[in-house]
Amino acid sequence: MTQLRAGRPDRLGCVLVSPNPQPAVEVSGLVKRYGSKTAVDGLDLVQQPGTVLALLGPNGAGKTTTVEICEGFRSADDGSVRVLGLPAGTEALRPRIGVMPQGGGGYPGIRAEEMLNLVAACAKNPHDPKWLIDVLGLGGAVRTPYKRLSGGQQQRLSLACALIGRPELVFLDEPTAGMDPQARRLVWDLVAALKDDGVTVLLTTHLMDEAESLADDVVIIDEGRVVAQGSPAELTANRPDDQQLRFRARPGLDTTLLSAALPEGLKVREVTRGAYVVEGLIDPQVVSTVTSWCAQQGVLAEELTVAKRSLEDVFLELTGRELRS
Amino acid sequence: MTTFAPGTFTPAPGRGSLPRMLFVHARTEAMLTLRNGEQILLTVIIPLALLIALSLMSVIPMPEPRVGSATARIFALAIISSAFTGQAIALGFDRRYGVLKRLSASALPRWLLVAGRVCGALVVVALQIALLAVTALFLGWRFPLGGLPWVVLLIVLGTLTFGALGVLLGGSLRADVVLALANIIWFVLLMVGGVALSVPVGFVHLLPSAALAQALETSVVHGTAPGVGPVAVLVAWGVVAGALATRTTRLT
């Protein structure tokens, strides 16, 4: 298919406007193997410019491999990856993208501002390194060598390095790993500001609230394949009767008795010790049944909430509950 | 909540100017080396102490004038310390701390990543040699000025060859393994690799350490061009190590 770009005249002199702008990131049929292990297994992904996309998945799902192929650090075994319209890894892409590798990176003996000055020297119109150091709250650690910074501080410096060159597209690989809640909020505010200013952001995470609050689109991957994608709202509310009533009470209540009292088709489960959930169409009658049944048992139903499925429920449903090695 | 004025992050990407990138990268490399205490011990303190000891004490037999010969050999040692051992260890730990990956992700071209390290290493070697030369002059060294171009050439060639060997070692193994090996090899080359004294064993002349020491001795003591043999040995080691290093060096 011929990709037509907005504003470019064709041979006849007309200006053709393509219905879809060129995607910022376009991955199709991506395959990557490490020896006998297939890390990415036919992955497809399209991200429109100016959006925030979260790659969500358990450890070892293939998130970092996918992102590193987009960044040009690894080559694909099969499939195609285009970034800002160019094949991934093209030298001309590097000034246009900002990269925050997993776990950061810096000379062991370098100070934050020296590291940022070095990366700033690689850019044509860099932000003021001092300003960015202050924004990221690293002002108190200006004389600390990189190897003595905490994990969260190293992550913040790495984020500063990703943003300093005013990129069009940023890749953030687990940007809030190792950060305290304050720093995490700051990163979220930064991502929101980037998006408002038209920067495309592709991030990986395994934090549901991060994906839910930041991303326009969430792509859930597991074992190298896309298992679900859509906006957080689409992913969590795909069926009208897909609601949950959650409450906490004494552990070990007889759930079969309560299930029998509930309307046809509804069942109560004890998901973790003392945490109960009823799934299905929750109406006022169901809430009343649950509370009065609890009252008969002489227990108080605490933290009773009615909500749609959380992204975490969707995620665990799709990727299973067992621990990954 | 932290708020940012609209337009703060409006994209304006582009690559910085190449000379400035090279300058800042080389300056950073040199500054980090000079700030590192262990590196200074290896590259400055030990060669300086050995220069004084070799010049003033006659424990090791050495051709007269002693101080000239000692200066040439300690120049060779200083280059090996800095370009090989220092570079290998620094690279090993830089990889562990992810700096190569970090810089590869910026707009810094790959060739500049190498060029910046080379320039940084040359700056450090120049400072070492200047310090050692001044000390040697105080110890009574008389430098035949005709040898200056040759000495400069050999210092650059030695730095490149041992730098390539340092990258070969530091670019592929784990940092702690690199640390151990780079120090052991340094010590072996110093003692029996034709650096501290010439070893009259055939294959030792084929080592880059012996070649560098011998070539420097010719130019530093006699002020004449080094022999073709030692220069060829140095070039051969440099080319082979460089070619291998481009295949084996990993970013992390």
Helix content of chain B: over 70%
- Broad shape of chain B: elongated
Query: Given the structure, what is the number of helices of chain A?
Result: 10
Q: Tally of extended strands of chain B?
A: 0
Largest sheet of chain A: 6 strands, mixed
**Oligomeric state of the chains in view:** heterodimer
Unreliable spans of chain B = none
Largest interface: A-B, 49 and 42 residues
Poorly predicted spans of chain A: 1-17
Could you explain how this protein is built, in words?
The complex is a heterodimer of chains A (325) and B (252). With 325 residues, chain A is of the alpha/beta class. Chain A is 30% helix and 26% strand. In chain A, strands 6-7-8-3-9-10 form a six-stranded mixed β-sheet, with helices on both faces. Chain A has a four-stranded antiparallel β-sheet with strand order 2-1-4-5, covered by helices on one side. The relative contact order of chain A is 0.13. Chain B is mainly α. Chain B has nine helices and no strands. The two termini of chain B are 36 Å apart. At the A-B interface, helix 2, helix 4 and helix 5 of A face helix 1, helix 3 and helix 4 of B.
